[in-house]
């Protein structure tokens, strides 16, 4: 056999081996998850998206106080310290969303257990399984003595599963697209907190699925933290340039209030997904 053909056969064998390994992982992340969700009687979820960098308020406040003390003690007030103080101020502001996410997850979990006696009808809160808003979500559910789901992902900078996920519903994904599949498959509502690139990716895919009819059922969507979302995403120029229609952004509401969000989501769920006996 010519040398070039030998190299080609070797490359093909490696390619097919790697492809088989990938397909095996994909099959596991699809079929094994399906079996587990069926076994655990999961049919309805309320999905929370948001930043992994959001700190609990107490921790963010303490960090801010420490840096403020450093700044007050420094006679020359170096720019590096001023920048750190400003960053700590923003982190403290963002930490308020941690509290809101935890409280909402607590209330949704409590409401679901009280309203829906059949486990198959209950709404289980679901997060990305990591720190920040994800941790707050699972933490709130645990406070309500309720199960919660964590869909973790293997990436270099993150992340270990947070300790508040129900062990039987804690999953670790290699592939983003399969993780997203399970975010959307059971979802009946979404609450999206301020976040970075990953959260933006999830928001735009969610809106795309709704507006293209790929998500055929109705799902209430709340973008929590109106100032953040209006600052970060300005849909008006897209409408003015004809890239989207005004009706393309009517599938969600903005909110800054836990009570308002809770009332809106629960009313919509009770209306569109009444208990089945």
Assembly category: single chain
Instruction: Specify the helix fraction band.
Output: 55-70%
Mean pLDDT: 91
How many β-strands, per DSSP? 7
The class by helix and strand makeup works out as alpha/beta
Main β-sheet, spatial strand arrangement:
4-3-2-1-5-6-7
Terminal CA distance: 69 Å
How much of the residues is beta strand, in percent? Answer: 5-15%
CATH architecture of the domain at 42-54 and 97-272: 3-Layer(aba) Sandwich
Radius of gyration: 22 Å
Shape: globular
- What is the makeup of the main sheet? 7 strands, parallel
- Write down the CATH topology of the domain at 42-54 and 97-272: Rossmann fold
SSE run:
HEHHEHEEHEHEHHEH
Given the structure, what is the number of helices?
9
Low-confidence stretches: none
CATH class of the domain at 42-54 and 97-272: Alpha Beta
What does this entry show, briefly?
56% of the residues lie in helices and 12% in strands.
Explain what the structure shows:
- The chain is an alpha/beta fold and 277 residues long.
- The chain has a domain at 42-54 and 97-272: 3-Layer(aba) Sandwich (Rossmann fold), CATH 3.40.50.
- Helices cover 56% and strands 12% of the residues.
- It has nine helices and seven strands; from the N terminus they run αβααβαββαβαβααβα.
- The chain has helices at 3-39, 57-73, 79-115, 133-143, 176-185, 197-211, 226-232, 236-240, 258-272, and strands at 44-49, 123-127, 148-153, 170-173, 187-192, 221-224, 253-255.
- Strands 4-3-2-1-5-6-7 form a seven-stranded parallel β-sheet, sandwiched between helices.
- Strand 2 (123-127), helix 4 and strand 3 form a beta-alpha-beta unit.
- Helix 2 (57-73) packs antiparallel against helix 3, helix 3 (79-115) runs parallel beside helix 4 and helix 3 runs parallel beside helix 9.
- It is globular.
- The termini are far apart.
- The model has no long low-confidence stretch (mean pLDDT 91).
């Amino acid at each position: 056999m010519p040398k070039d053909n030998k190299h080609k056969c070797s490359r093909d064998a490696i390619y097919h081996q790697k492809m088989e390994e990938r397909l095996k992982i994909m099959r596991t992340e699809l079929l094994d998850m399906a079996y587990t969700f069926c076994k655990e009687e999961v049919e309805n979820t309320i999905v929370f998206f948001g930043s992994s960098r959001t700190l609990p308020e107490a921790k963010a406040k303490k960090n801010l106080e420490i840096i403020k003390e450093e700044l007050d003690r420094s006679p020359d007030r170096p720019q590096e310290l001023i920048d750190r103080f400003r960053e700590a101020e923003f982190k403290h502001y963002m930490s308020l969303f941690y509290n809101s996410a935890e409280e909402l997850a607590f209330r949704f979990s409590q409401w679901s257990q009280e309203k829906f006696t059949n486990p198959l009808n209950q709404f289980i809160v679901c997060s990305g399984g990591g720190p920040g808003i994800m941790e707050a979500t699972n933490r709130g559910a645990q406070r309500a003595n309720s199960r919660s789901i964590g869909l973790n992902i293997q990436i270099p900078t993150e992340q270990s599963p947070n300790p508040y996920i129900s062990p039987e519903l804690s999953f670790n994904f290699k592939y983003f697209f399969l993780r997203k599949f399970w975010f959307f498959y059971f979802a009946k509502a979404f609450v999206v907190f301020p976040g970075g690139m990953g959260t933006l990716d999830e928001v735009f895919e969610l809106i795309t699925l709704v507006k293209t009819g790929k998500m055929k059922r109705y799902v209430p969507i709340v973008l929590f933290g109106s100032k953040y979302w209006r600052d970060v995403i300005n849909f008006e120029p897209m409408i003015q340039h004809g890239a989207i229609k005004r009706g393309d952004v009517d599938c969600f509401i903005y909110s800054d209030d836990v009570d308002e969000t809770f009332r809106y989501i629960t009313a919509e769920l009770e209306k569109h997904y009444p208990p089945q006996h």
